[in-house]
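Newbie here. three chains, one complex. Structure please?
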Amino acid sequence: MTDLNTLQLTATTALGGTLPQEARHGALRMAENSGLALASLTLRRGTTQPAPFGLALPGPGAWGQAGRHAALWMGPEQWLIEGEGLAETDFATALQGQCPGCSVTEQTDGFVAFEITSEAGEAPILALLARLVNIAPDRLRPGMGTRTGLEHMSVLVIRRAPDRLALLGLRSAAATLWHALTTAAARLG
Amino acid sequence: MRLSGGEIDRSQTLRFTFDGRAYTGHPGDTLASALLANDVRLMGRSFKYHRPRGVFSAGSEEPNALVTLRGGARAEPNTRATAVELFEGLEARSQNAWPSLAFDALAVNDLMANFLTAGFYYKTFMWPRAFWERLYEPMIRKAAGLGRLSMAADPDAYDKGFLHCDLLVIGAGAAGLAAALTAARAGAQVILADEDARLGGRLLAESATLDGAPARDWVAGLEAEMASLPNLRLMRRTTVWGLFDHGVYGAVERVADHLPIPGAQVRQTLWRITARRAVLAAGATERHIPFRNNDRPGVMQAGALRAYANRFAVSPAQRVAIFTSQDDGHQTALDLIAKGVEIAAVIDSRAEARAMGEYRLIAGGQVCDSRGRLGLRAVQVRHGGGVEWLSCGALGVAGGWNPNLHLASHQRGRPRWDEAAQAFLPDTLPAGLAVAGAAAGQGETAAVMASGVAAALRALADLGLSGRAPALPITEARSLAGQSLWHVPGKGRAWVDFQNDVTVKDIKLAHQENMRPVEHLKRWTTLGMATDQGKTANVAALAVMAELTGQTIAATRTTIFRPPYTPVALSALGGGDSGAQFRPRRLTPSHAWAAAQGAVFVEVGQWMRAQWFPQPGETHWRHSVDREVLATRKGVGICDVTTLGKVDVQGADAAVFLDRLYANPMASLKVGMVRYGLMLREDGHAYDDGTCARLAEDHYVVTTTTAQAGPVYRHMEFARQCLWPELDVQLISTTEAWAQFAVAGPNARKLLERVVDGFDLSNAAFPFMACAQLTICGGLRARLFRISFSGELAYELAVPARFGAALMARLVAVGADLGATPYGTEALGVMRIEKGHVAGNELNGQTTAQMLGLGRMVSDKKDAIGAVMSRREGLVEEARVLVGLQPVNPGDPVVAGSHLFAQGAQQKTETDEGWITSACHSPHVGSSIGLGFLARGAERLGEVIVAANPLQGQQIALRVVPAHFVDPDGGRLRD
Amino acid sequence: MLIPHPLLGLRDAQEFTCLGDAALLNRPDGLADPQALTDYVYLRDNPAGVHRELWFHEQGDRSWLVVTRNTLTHEILGAELARDVALRAKGAK
């Protein structure tokens, strides 16, 4: 368990700063979400599907939320569980406690997360998506999410709400992904 | 010359230059129409013969009026003047002419025409062979070709994007507008794309009314409705240039090409459109009728003359003649007369032709020659048994229309000849594609619109949507009767393909030389192989071939088309990924720290890794690397090894799974221990290596090499899902989640003791190849592995990636008195070679476990991937094994890639005994050293052999030594 | 090309990696029959026509699929999870 009071090391965000980065282009606001805790959850043979943190684990192509927790379907019998603002906790251990008998893997630092918010409804979000990923808009309606390719990188795209989108990518490629995202948003004006 | 009316905005004047001369035009003009308005008919020189050429068409099919647009780095060669919207300050230059367009020295080629005929490339540049590269190629490259590239980087930004729709409508003419309207009103997601800046297509080029008003009024009304429909995306200036499998279309949107400075934002956007259904409504291209000297500036498509008069309010000349085999040609005469242009005559090849208005008709006549070196002055007409010269400044030629079904054949669909339509029509269509309007052979506007509606209704029905036919406007009936005339027989050269200078004579020659099938004809004559891909030439050419062979056109068949429909800039296809953004760049957790230390970085796949850390006073990279190696071997070195692939393996059957995946046993590994693992390919060759750490009975963490992280993970998923789906095992890639550092050297333990939270690091408690989960630095969860690739006492310490930079800094800081030294990949490589550890150079896909000296690791007690095949005779008998190599003369280099021979042996393939895989300067040994595969190497320790490097003329004597240059018995690792 | 993913619907082929002949699912026991293993490693059908192929949804859910594709027309006749196909084959043995 990380004890922040005694810890002698300072974390850096995926973009390399001590504070998360933000950018704004037109109606779109983009921010690095360094507080998002992540863990992979995989069913083992014979285990029944759990409901960690009260989450109804979503089906293929879908994403669901319950309070500060959320789950994205990643593959057959596999989900990515999110904990908003829980990055400093031992999230994997907490999740394991909720899912006895399942395989859990720590992933908080495996990804960089960018949260994108529109101040003008869903149109700017849809326009941005069309510049970024080759996924039909009806597969990225609110409450849906998927892994796909973006500029030769693997990313997770989550439509949290009509006006909110999350983009999760390889932590090591955070700068490239941020460049791709902000460039696309800037070009939308 | 400028006429009245048209779709141009006379309230604004735009200034532009052509070949340095200043002209003016108006918004709504193309460069071609603006030049014609300024009485410029000569716009270029032809490809091969350098013949003077003018504008031929009013659209993207233009073969002649190719110019270099803009200047400096933005100079864009081979731009069709007919497709360039005029903008203020436009700058264009003619091409393929020297010293000037009007006097071109290479026009001498025209006098050598007999020499430059069909197949001349093949016949002329064959012998002698030595001339190929020295003479022929430079000569051809200099003389041929059209515009020149600027040779400067493209300064503009290009973008890309992805669109999905129910219905893609390609072309916004009468058919496309009707189709898009029908589908959009039914609620379908519709994209309507057109290469033009304006909607309407051919409607804007015709005088015919819709609902009794100019067609532009009807188009404008439709545009207003379409703009209000959220489910319809209008894409003007967008060429759908390719049709790919399963309804994927390539389109390029010219976002800013019509602006004086195109690069302010994005110049062009490449769109990948996935459409459930599509309607091809790309219209038709008018064909011409080849006759002697038919390539002079002023000879044009009759329909283009009409488009220039009606839409652009220009005529290339005051006095114009028409040569037609169709009623449609007469319409051009009528439209020109209405605009005040004088018609010299309408020459109709049909004896029974009748005049449709007040002009001189020459029925049963043919144009058989022309005059006017730099622009048409007169045409010679043969009729009634005699010939007559008619003076005129332009000639409109109307030979019928070819449907633009290029996209319909991008998936190898071969159009079929329709005798009634006298045109090639689509035969089998790609799934999901319908063709409508003129592209489907329709001519009358009412029929064109109806076919667009019908295609949309069929698409809607396929998609499970119901639609209704919209009310269509009342159209004017026009006679479209005609009789094909493929060429005017006679002497001299009659051009078929203007851009590539292919004449009827060339086709005759191809026929005579037995290049008769259309594909041969095309390649022998280069017909249709220019930038216009023969849009105005191909059908006429194969009709001529049909005539020569006595076959029907249907039997002669046509070549098919490939993407792109019109040329697409490579910058657009590149999608803007250039320079530092050419590909993703992955940074290690300690990257910023390393950069602050002045590290030199190296690209390792997508990763940027610190290669070495120069210190003040170090003037050569070897200084830095030698210091890092020696400091590590003497004190302690720290290296970021996060890039190694890491996979979390869990499940009740994790042990069984890994046992089958690795050649060596993994199930027997004790919890809390690590084992080196070797993966084989199924064919028995070595695939990848790494370590397996067993964290719990049902939980392992395995590592892969940096380069193979992706493929090995895929391979593991293949084994899990495809080979042994019955096993209870789960795989999660965690490469990114953990920052991992190698801490190596005699002081490694002492250094780690200063960061762990009360963890016993003693040899007894945490021996060689142990692993543990622990906390460090006051509570940070971490993983520790006691593994070594340097030959030293070494550990790898992993923490959540966000703490990686801080941990690196801390280890260096708290270890200062222990000699803690960061080292890069170069020192890493030196130390692994000194220790004889294999890496990518040895695991190159051609080597076996036996060659690597790891043969005993391959268990014969289990059926792991590759284990059985690795025991095949041929592999077992492989005599080359890994050895160390050291120069006899310590000053000599060891060069990787050199081949190994016995001393005194003749050096040839048969006597080749192996090769050097890795080499470096070893500060430990004090000379260059290497690793290599040598036949019977184990028996030859001490022998002196020769390393041959013929590329640099090197022959170096090397002594064969054990592959471990440091600590051969491994004592340091275990202390 | 578009691949009809059995769980995720039509997805662009750029998201996938193609491995080829789905016969690779039927790995024989190498200890029992080395010749069968040799055939498995080296002999593949390469039909001009309908072919069953393995595709990996690398930029997706990481499922291996068995895609039935006509190699002449690129028409895709179906796709299922390779795991299901392999389990079915094992059940049949």
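Moderator note: The beta strands of chain C are 2-5, 9-12, 17-21, 50-56, 64-70, 76-81. Chain C touches chain A at residues 7-12, 14-15, 58-63, 81, 83 (CB under 8 Å). Thread marked as resolved.
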